[in-house]
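User: Could you check the structure of this?
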Amino acid sequence: MSATVVGIDSSTQSCKVVVVDLESGDVLSTATAPHPDGTSVDPRVWLEA
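Assistant: Sure, the predicted structure tokens are below.
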């Protein structure tokens, strides 16, 4: 049975996902979904929190 690794990148404009076979390094699947309008947060707010 082969193991997989999932990488997630949630940026200011979209969320991206990649699924990789751990043994071979082959990319098995990718997907991207945009964030809805108005959901962007200024990174300075994170630092202040």
